[in-house]
Amino acid sequence: MYLKNGSSFTGFILLGFSDWPQLERVLFVVLLIFYLLTLLGNTTIIALSRLDPHLQTPMYFFLSNLSFLDLCYTTSTVPQLLVHLRGADKSISFGGCVAQLFVSLGLASTECILLGVMAFDRYAAVCRPLHYTVIMHPRLCVLMASASWFIGFANSSLQMGLIFLVPLCGRNKIDHFFREVTLLLKLACVDTTENENEIFCVSVIILLIPVTLITFSYGHIVRAVLRIKSATGQRKVFGTCGSYLTVVSLFYGTGIYFYLQPNSNYSQDQGKFISLFYTIVTPMANPFVYTLGNKDVTGAMRKVFCQDYDSR
Prior knowledge:
By secondary structure, this protein is mostly helical. 75% of the residues lie in helices and 4% in strands. The strands form two sheets. The protein has a three-stranded mixed β-sheet with strand order 3-2-5. Strands 1-4 form a two-stranded parallel sheet.
């Protein structure tokens, strides 16, 4: 994205919640607490997956990938948001804008694909239990995780190319707390309909691939669970799969509502709070959703903490 008239350009001004100074103080405290909980929860999942041999399975390998992804995503946006909430300077450099948009787009796209991969893992565990270790070989797990990251950042690179090739007319105020694709395109001084359509098509493809895989996997999982005669076995499978579906609902629900609703129904203020939800609330909730009621994780936590206590 460049200036059409060739004048100098230093960056953008993120208006965020500057219209509500009292709300900014409250949000600063709330978001700081949420961010610290995000760091604590996701770091704990990653550490436990590495320290406890019982958690060194494909499911927790992908879960630790998800936790690392959430750590990166929140760290790419929240610290700067906290700085803006506490100060009068709401600006961000052009280079910072490009870097943050590239990283956040890449991580969001990666999470879309990774959630689909995690659904396939649960399908193999529930529907093909005797062949699970053969199907979900460590090399395949690494390959699928790597493919998720590659596809995610390839999508980000493509969208960045479609965004930053349009001329900017000198307007640099964005009524948001971080860079959104649609908001940047509104600053262009040319018709961006074609760019918006191309970005929408790419986004739908990135969304449909994992959604199709999730639907396929959990359609078979439900049928397999209903054939289990043991009530204890059913509860165990539904407990694990229920945690995953909660995470999927939080991520896709807010994302679909935000990106696919008609422009006529779009409220900028409403969009800010929805963005806050999937930027900070969802990454914070993920590790707690998986740990609450999960005997494997809680057992690993007791084992690690008890060992540390006994070693003293």
